[in-house]
Specification:
The protein has helices at 7-27, 36-61, 66-89, 95-117, 126-144, 166-197. By secondary structure, the chain is mostly helical. The chain has one domain (2-200): Four Helix Bundle (Hemerythrin (Met), subunit A) (Up-down Bundle).
């Protein structure tokens, strides 16, 4: 199957394959192995870069396929959901933000299915692109912001009572701004998709 894929589709599949690897590395909670967060950071950064790369190549070389239209959004949702869920489990991102992010993905997917039923491809809109950028940036910063030791650290959304050095504080501030911005963009995206594509939601059949 991989031999038949073009480069953007291969990058999409690579992104999907990196998600379980990221989850495994983030799940390791052994004292002395806190440095693994940088391995997780590298995995996530590579996966996030493939998102930019496959889209850029597809548009530039006209390599848009039906497979890519389905799998690329799925890969993005898997990557973002994995990041938010793992960081919520570690106490860095509040659960309500993760719930809203996942709700949005299910909601937009359902709208796309209504569109597909009417032979209409519902692509990404500006709100979705802004949302994805802020989500990925926030997750990457949140991974850096994770506790530096098993017994504690500075990895709390919107600051913590634990003393931070200047670099830790700066990382935490930027992470908090990105996650807050991602939350606002996610809500904007829900409203945006609903009003732009509500005509495809058929309740009569």
């Amino acid at each position: 199957m991989l031999k038949k894929m073009n480069l953007p589709n291969k990058l999409t599949m690579l992104r999907i394959a990196l998600v379980p690897l990221f989850i495994i590395v983030m799940s390791v909670k052994i004292e002395g192995l806190e440095w693994l967060k940088y391995v997780a950071l590298g995995i996530y950064a590579i996966a996030a870069f493939t998102d930019f790369l496959d889209g850029s190549i597809s548009r530039k070389k006209g390599l848009v396929t039906n497979f890519g239209k389905i799998m690329d959004p799925l890969a993005d949702k898997l990557l973002v959901s994995a990041g938010f869920i793992m960081l919520t489990g570690l106490g860095t991102i509040p659960a309500y933000i993760t719930a809203i992010v996942i709700f949005r993905d299910f909601w937009v997917s359902s709208i796309r299915m209504f569109g597909a039923d009417k032979k209409v491809a519902i692509g990404a809109v500006l709100s979705g692109k802004v949302k994805t950028f802020l989500q990925l940036a926030g997750i990457l910063l949140a991974i850096i912001d994770l506790p530096v030791s098993a017994g504690g650290g500075f990895g709390a959304f919107l600051f913590n009572s634990i003393k931070m050095n200047e670099l830790q504080l700066l990382t935490n501030v930027f992470m908090s701004v990105c996650i807050t911005g991602a939350l606002m963009a996610t809500i904007w995206s829900i409203i945006d998709y609903t009003f732009k594509f509500k005509k495809y939601i058929n309740v009569d059949s």
